[in-house]
Write a structure and sequence with these properties.
By secondary structure, the chain is an alpha/beta fold. The chain has two domains: 2-50 and 209-237, no CATH class; 60-196, Ribonuclease H-like superfamily/Ribonuclease H (Nucleotidyltransferase, domain 5, 2-Layer Sandwich), CATH 3.30.420. It has helices spanning 2-12, 18-27, 34-40, 103-113, 133-141, 158-170, 180-196, and strands at 63-72, 78-86, 91-98, 122-125, 145-148, 220-226, 231-237. It has a five-stranded mixed sheet with strand order 3-2-1-4-5, with helices on both faces. It has a two-stranded antiparallel ribbon with strand order 6-7. α4 (103-113) runs parallel beside α5.
């Protein structure tokens, strides 16, 4: 039973490594070792890209990261995506898309990221000129202390860089973006999957929105397709 589920999971998700499959199986009430998964998983010609890990453990619960990344469209327009990532539980608390990023546009994004909860103590960001005087004033107004990375040192903002890499590999590299509205929908679908179903090694194979373990008595393991087949997750459903 477990061997067949391992084969199906690995075949349907060639980018998953054995730790990811162990975590997924644990959430389905199936306890297996990493070596067992490696024994039965379907091998692909192209190995999964190894993850990049870095440590920012001090004051993790008080940290958020902000960063931009660019997305080209089918008509060769360049769209800018702004994300705010809360380090505890790796939650993306806010994202927005624009074709013309300015300091005036960026400043209110931080307020929108924390409309109902207390803002964090520290914000990690790079030295891009998009963060102008208006952004700095908004940060000070919210009582947040900025931590600026060194020039040309993206590794100093590792959590944001890591999640941007995940968004590219698991979402944007699989589709052609038609425009701003299409990109917003793609990112919204991905973040729904990311928060509810995607297990993270840094979270001890849990999800940003904690995911309960489903015991065998809940039913058979089924594969659920999301976002028109772009993502899949596995859960137990009664027959």
């Amino acid at each position: 039973m477990a061997q067949e589920i391992i084969r199906k999971m690995s075949a349907a998700n060639p980018g998953w490594g054995s730790p990811r499959i162990v975590g997924e199986l644990a959430k389905l009430g199936i306890s297996v070792s990493k070596s067992t998964v490696e024994k039965y998983m379907v091998r692909t010609r192209k190995p999964p890209v190894p993850s990049w890990r870095a440590c920012l453990e001090n004051h993790e619960k008080d940290l958020v990261s902000a960063d931009f990344f660019v997305v080209p469209t089918v008509s060769f327009r360049i769209l800018f995506v702004f994300i705010v990532l809360a380090h505890p539980w790796r939650r993306i608390v806010h994202f927005s898309v624009t074709e013309h990023p300015t300091a005036q546009w960026t400043a209110p994004q931080l307020s929108e990221a924390f409309p109902w909860e207390a803002p964090p103590r520290f914000l990690i960001r790079d030295r891009d000129r998009i963060y102008g005087a208006e952004f700095k004033a908004r940060v000070e107004c919210l009582g947040i202390e900025e931590v600026l990375t060194a020039p040309r040192s993206p590794w100093q903002n590792p959590f944001a860089e890591r999640v941007i890499g995940s968004i590219r590999r698991e979402c944007l590299d699989q589709v052609v973006v038609l425009g701003e509205r299409h990109l917003r929908r793609l990112l919204g679908d991905y973040l729904e999957h990311y928060h509810r179903w995607r297990c993270h090694r840094s979270l001890e194979m849990d999800c940003p929105t904690p995911r309960p373990v489903q015991r065998p008595k809940l039913g058979d393991v089924v594969q659920v397709v999301e976002a028109d087949g772009l993502y899949r997750h596995h859960e137990r459903l009664a027959a």
